[in-house]
Amino acid sequence: MNQIIIHVDMDAFYASVEMRDDPTLRGKPLIIGSLPNERGVVATCSYEARKYGVHSAMNIKEAYRRCPNGIYMHPNFEKYKAVSSQLHDIWNDYATASETIALDEAYLDVTEYAKTFEGAREIGHTIKQRTQQELGLTCSVGVAYSKTSAKTASEEKKPDGYFEIPDEKAFVELMTDRDVRSLYTVGEKTAEKLNSAGIYTVRDIQEKQEEVIRLLGKQGRWLTQIAFGIDNRKVVPYQPQNAKSISRELTFQEDVSNDALIKDVMFLLSLCVENRAKRYSLYGKGVTLKITYSDMKSITRSKATSSCVSAIDIYNEAVQLFDKVSKRPIRLIGVGIYNLSTEYERQLSFDDFLTDREQVRKAELKALFDDLRDRYYLDFEGNLEKIFKVETLHRTAEYMRKHI
């Protein structure tokens, strides 16, 4: 039996949840993300806001220029996560494998449950119906023979849409004369490269396969396959250990030049990275530092390490990287670990034989918490759960910036 895959994608998820919970927001241009007087971007927006040209990832200042009368709100991630869990409970009732893409999006392998395409159609409509009845939200559903075609199908009739692509022939007929951007994974930069070679449509990719591969290499080879509807990938349930990295970053509302403040924020970010890594029993064998300066130039620095997950080890390595970079006003700072593994490996050094490394870590950690308390009157020791929330982390960093 050929596989049958459903792609479910919620419609303007964050905005829809807020409108469900506050009916006075319905029918209005609602923009979730930063506020107009802050730095940041649009996380998502209602379809009414999209009529003004606002879209996800747009700079919030540009969104405000286009839609000054919009309603702007900070996201409530804890609420969205709770709703997401309810959504996935519904979706997973019909799948032998579920691949979560985001809080509001997933691929479902329904082959065994559906048996036939007609059975999958019934499942697709049932998912839409239950999502509406049980949670008061709408979703768009694509039923198809592959992941690429299912994703394409779910986009076809948004919002609150349903569409089917039963086989490769149907996919090719649908896509051949469309712009290359209509192919999933083709972004603006890839499209520009293709356009520069006279490749504008999916048909052009089909007819100029060698040129596409020459231009884009491995990605080009992939595009030549999906242009003909070929995609044999399976739905793979998300496993945290399969992630390539764990990181947290923060954008300051005003550029920061104070190294002490930046390092204090790096400590908070390291605590967040440690929390997520420990949740999945993962260790990193490298530490990364990301910086975006006031002129929007971004740099990333990394250093291979022995296995680490403790915040103090992450922090110390990140500080070493920070001390070596150019000191200019900073807009964004990020800390992370990479080369993840579930196995702990540590190469003992001479110092390890002379000291109790764990006691040293605890002492360093206490000293950093003491610094936060002395400089900002913040006391997180023994009460860290709050700082792991995105909203609290950003509010805390802003408080620190204003009180340094």
Structure notes:
There is one protein chain. The protein is α+β, with helices and mostly antiparallel strands. It folds into 3 domains: 13-77, MutS, DNA mismatch repair protein, domain I (3-Layer(aba) Sandwich), CATH 3.40.1170; 172-226, 5' to 3' exonuclease, C-terminal subdomain (DNA polymerase, domain 1, Orthogonal Bundle), CATH 1.10.150.20; 240-403, DNA polymerase, Y-family, little finger domain (Dna Ligase, domain 1, 2-Layer Sandwich). 45% of the residues lie in helices and 21% in strands. The longest helix has 21 residues, at 259-279. The protein is globular, with a radius of gyration of 24 Å. Mean pLDDT is 92; it is low at 347-355.
CATH class category name of the largest domain: Alpha Beta
- For the record, give the distance between the C-alpha atoms at the N and C termini, rounded to a whole number: 64 Å
Q: Detail the poorly predicted runs.
A: 347-355
CATH topology of the largest domain: Dna Ligase, domain 1
- CATH architectural category of the largest domain: 2-Layer Sandwich
Q: Tally of extended strands?
A: 12
The total of helices stands at 17
- Outline type: globular
Number of domains: 3
Largest sheet: 5 strands, mixed
The computed structural class is: alpha+beta
The chain-level mean pLDDT equals: 92
Radius of gyration: 24 Å
**What is the CATH superfamily label of the largest domain?**
DNA polymerase, Y-family, little finger domain
